[in-house]
Every structure is written in C-alpha cells, then in structure tokens.
Amino acid sequence: MAQRFTGVGGTCEDPGMPQAPQMRAPGVKDVAAAAGVSLGTVSNVLNRPDRVSAPTRARVEQAMLDLGFVRNESARQLRAGRSSTVAYVMLDATNPFFTDVAQGVEDAADEADLSLFLCNSDNRIARERSYLDRLLQQRVMGVLVTPIDPHEPHLDHVVAQGMPVVVVDRRRDVATHCSVSVDDVFGGRLAVEHLLDLGHECIAFIGGPASVGQVADRLSGARAAVADATGGGAELVVVETQGMTVAEGRNAGERLLGMARKHRPTAAFCANDLVALGLLQQCVALGVRVPEELAIVGYDDIEFAAAAAVPLTSVRQPRRELGRRAAALLLEEASDPDHQHQQVVFTPELVARQSTRRPG
Amino acid sequence: MAQRFTGVGGTCEDPGMPQAPQMRAPGVKDVAAAAGVSLGTVSNVLNRPDRVSAPTRARVEQAMLDLGFVRNESARQLRAGRSSTVAYVMLDATNPFFTDVAQGVEDAADEADLSLFLCNSDNRIARERSYLDRLLQQRVMGVLVTPIDPHEPHLDHVVAQGMPVVVVDRRRDVATHCSVSVDDVFGGRLAVEHLLDLGHECIAFIGGPASVGQVADRLSGARAAVADATGGGAELVVVETQGMTVAEGRNAGERLLGMARKHRPTAAFCANDLVALGLLQQCVALGVRVPEELAIVGYDDIEFAAAAAVPLTSVRQPRRELGRRAAALLLEEASDPDHQHQQVVFTPELVARQSTRRPG
DNA sequence: TTGTATGCGTTATCAA
DNA sequence: TTGATAACGCATACAA
Lengths: 360, 360
Prior knowledge:
The structure is a homodimer. Chain A is α/β, with parallel strands linked by helices and about 350 residues long. Chain A has three domains: about 50 residues, lambda repressor-like DNA-binding domains (434 Repressor (Amino-terminal Domain)), CATH 1.10.260; about 130 residues, Rossmann fold, CATH 3.40.50; about 140 residues, Response regulator (Rossmann fold, 3-Layer(aba) Sandwich), CATH 3.40.50.2300. Chain A is built from 13 helices and twelve strands. In chain A, the strands form two sheets. A six-stranded parallel beta sheet of chain A has the order 2-1-3-4-5-11, with helices on both faces. Chain A has a six-stranded mixed beta sheet with strand order 7-6-8-9-10-12, with helices on both faces. The structure holds a DNA duplex (16 and 16 nucleotides).
C-alpha cells in the first residue's frame, strides 16, 4: 500500500531554523526518515536508549535536534493509558495559606518527577466542577483538591471514575478517599485557651460564613474552651463574616469596634490570618491599641502574620507538610492497587506574638 | 475480521455504580454497543447533537450516563491536533502580585471557555524550562510566562516550535513574541519623586538581586529622579537584597537601620511590597517610627500593602488587567494566523498612604 | 540490534 | 439520519 509521505524535512533545508512554523510538527516518522532508520528505532532511542547502538542513537538524536522534534504527549498518553501529571485544585490561589500548601505538593511532585498543574476554583462551585471534569477527561494521574464542600456529589463522581483523589485541609467521615487535614477544633481551642490564660473574659470569634467547615470547627473548639472555663464567667461573641478575606476582616472590625467600650470584647480570635490582618488594620485606623485594648489571634500563621507591624499571634498549621503528605498519599494510591484510604490529621500549634502580649 | 469485544457493560450490571474501578474506562465504542447504535452516531451526539434524532440521542445519552462515560481528552486532542488549555508559568506563586495577575488571566480564559493551568517556576530556571517543555509536549494552545530571564534561549525554543507565547511583566527589545509589561522605570521615578516632593534628601533603594529586570528598571527610574533633582543635593543609597521576599526586607532593614542616625536615609523605596513589609516590620521591631523617622514606598500595591498596620504607600500596577490583556493577546495570536507581535506597556501610578505621610 | 505491524479513543469523511 | 472506516502520533510485541 503506497503511503503518502507528506515529508517535513524535504522542503525545509535551513538547519538554523528547525521548521517553518506553519507546517506540521515533525513526528517520530519524520525523525526516522531523516535519520535513515525505522520508526521503531526512533522510539527505542526515546524509551530504551540502551537497546540501540551508539552511532545509530547519535544519528537519531541529531535528527531530532535538526527537526526540532517534540514528543506528542497526547499520543503518548493515549497509548500508555496513564499520565504523569497531577493537579491541585485550590480553593483560593490568592490566599497565602494555599500557595504554601501548593509548595509542599510541588516538593513531592518534583521528587517523583511528576508535573503539577495548579487550578484555582476561587471558591466557586462551578469552577471547581469544571476543573475536576477537565482533569478527569485529561486522565491525569490523580487529583488533590481542597473542595468548597467535601460533601459535593461531584467529588464522588471523580472517585467513582477510579481517579485517585486526596482531599486537602478538609475531611469527611466516610472514607471514600484519602484526606489530609488539621485538627481545627483543637486549633480553635488552643487559640481561645491562650486568650483565657491571659485573663480575657469576653472574647470575640470572627469569621464566616458558618457553612465553611473550618469556620465551624474552629468556632466549636473555641466554644468548648470557653465552656470549660465557664467557672470564670467567660463568654464568646460571634461576629460572622461573608468570607475570609482582609476586606471582610476590616468590615467585621468596624462592627466590633463600634460596640460600647464596656461591652466590647477585649480579645478577638479570627478564623484566619487574612481576617485578622483586616481587623488589625481597622484597629490602627480607629486608634485602638493592640494588644492593650484588643488582643488578636489569627489562624494559619501565614508569612504576613509575622510580618504585620503588630506581629500576629496565630495558630500554625503545617502548611507545606500538609501538601507534601497529601501528594505522597496520592502517589501511593496511584501506584498501589490495593491501597487503603487514610485520613491523616495534623495537630496545629499556637505561635504567640505581640498581638496578644500581656499588657504590662 | 473478528473484533474481540472486551465489553464493559457485560459484567457490570449494577446501575448504581457506573463501572468497577478496575476495568478499562468505557469509550465511545462501549457507549455505542450499550445504546445499540454505531460508533459514529455516538460521536455525532457528542459533537453535532443536531444531526441525530431526538430518541436516538436520548438513548445514547442514557447509555453514557449508565456507563459513566468520560471523553478521553488525549484521543480528542491527538485527533484534533489542538488543545483548549492554556498555561501560565508564574515566577513565584507565593507572591500575591502574581496570583493577582493569574486572576486576570483566569478571567479571560473563563470568557473564552478555556481552562487555565498554573505552573510555578518558583524562580528556578530548571523548573521553568521543565514546565515549558512539558507544555510543549502537551501541545497546549498557548503559554503565558513571567520568565526568570526573558533572554533565556529556551524561551525562543518554545516560540520556534510555533507555540504562541506571551511574556508577562517582562519585555525584550526584539519582538519575537508578545509581551505585556508595566513601565518600571517610570514607576521607580514616581516613587522617588514622591519622596523628593516630601522633602527627603537622602533616599534608600532596597531590592535585588540587581540582575532581575524589574529591579534594574525601578532603580534606574529612581536614579533618574534623583539626578533630575540633583540641584537639591539629593542622594540615593542602594541596599541590595538576595531576593524579593519579606525575609529579605527584614534583613535589609536591619542593615539600613543599623546606620548612624546622621547618615541614615530618611526614606526608603523598596523594589516590591514584600520587601517593604519586611522593612516595615523591622522598623517596628527596632522602634523606628514610620513615617516620622523613615518613610517607606513599596511597589506592586498588593492587598497586604494597604492592610499593613502602617498602610504602605506603593506604586500600583494594574495586576489583574496585566493578566487579562496578556491572555487576550495569547488568544489573538492563537487564532489569527497573520498575527503581529505586540509589546503592551502599562503605566503605573502612585498610591500615597500613611507610610509616607508628611510628618506634622 | 533493527524493522514491521497493530491498536490506543476520537473525529471526520463518505457511502448507505 | 446513520454506519463503516481511515487517520492522528506513539509505543510495544514480535519478526527479521
């Protein structure tokens, strides 16, 4: 059967410029033709270089260089049935907490020689679903995701397709997939116990919306701490926000600081550092001294917490380690056929700084 | 020729669970068999639903649902030769400036119904190259990149492969590709002129390494401003850092504030906001009042600049717009065959805040 | 050691 | 409207 060779090397003689941009990209076929070997040999040079003699290999490699050959990953993957990329679907790429987690994921991916694609769901359910769908279609090796809601059915859909999934910074009771999270209830307790130790009796909790898992957990830990100390007559004032951003923190600060001094809490525990930074900013704007008039505890211990002009006391999560461990679980699941899902839970720790320094 | 049908629907009868995770994922072929139609019809349902009768379409769609059919993007792309994903190779995913740019890219990608993958080169040349290689192999539609060095030859390599490339936040004189950047020389000038206007005569420039394009440009603008004002006897003290991070800012602050008060600059222009925040933190730690004893100007106007306890004067770049425009150029290049490379340059503006408020 | 043939899942062309 | 078939580029099993 006469095969029509729509050659590439034929009309493009200039060795300086691999190939005119317009024409078809050269494939193994073209390389084979240029090197005067067969297609299979080129493939061997690429995948089992040891099985081809040095001189032949050299010729083939030179041909690849001349032609500017680039492997077609689609074809490769179609053939192989598997891919070597993983993805992390982040909840909010502008929150330093998640970029730090991503760094940890990247560490692990690097070691395993995988490439990592970051996707930002930006707290939008439609976007999250859209990314997961695309990732499924791309047949990536696995997906790490910090979901908006770990109970969303489309997460299960991904799992049902046989795609390895690890949920990061959230967890679910039913073990349909691995997860790596931090004990937020305990973190909330840590924060409030710290404030109680400092003698605060009226403490505000700032964060929201309450539907967010982390917020609920941290609040519940905070409540538990207050309850335990109830003999001291401590109380918790909840100020709910619409989101976990600096702007929302400012906003909440406005409300909090607007309260009559008599009833105003003397300390605030913010559900994350962004909110805490916003609150801090509002304090400065309104001339409220921190920590003298208002002590502040944040959560996450992002780099900007320590860098705030009044360094922020915060509950530290092992962000990078979170990512690393999640990636490790993913790789394990992807390689081990009879893998058992695991729920890894880290323990946070309190980092005390100036924003809660004992006055005097 | 007898075709062996390794059926999928055959052994998996439970309608509740699409397919056992172990077996091959169902393809169009399986859907066709299940729906009792031919392969081409399934394809039509997917790509030209109008060319298939309603009842048939319904049957096919039901079969897809039952089997849990997911398109194989690799095969699609192999066949089509093109992809509908773009990527943004970021210089530093932990720097809010770049995540904001990424948001802008995402805006545009969303509109065009493309998916965006974020890659973080993390300032490492090997990683940048590795990502670009993979992206090339994946035959993505195009690549946005903030390169470590826009003169690196591997960037040209990507362009030579016919891959649409838009350089973000850097530029090169030769127009081998599009670029979207901000006039950093002007930005540097803005910052320093502001300080000169406030009466400062001894100004520090903090940033580095000097090899980074932005640093060099901002410094040169700063120098020009000082030179213009030389009649006033102003001078510029350069404090070079190893990077553009908060930690480096603190570090530089230590050095700067260690100078004898007499010779110490009364104002500092930092090459970015992270460095400025570090400096600010150091000032607070050492009890140096801002702006009374040291005025500070940052660069980028990231959200944390305004949120700093002493709100930071900064040179604002249209971060999101930068990303949007870059993505738009990329799409244009990808679709328009006789596209002309463009160098878009935005103009930054100064946002004055408390960190340079005139004392008194 | 090198060459040949086949199929991965999809889409498009063309014939029915 | 629907069905059969040929690519897309690569990797592998197998033959030479």
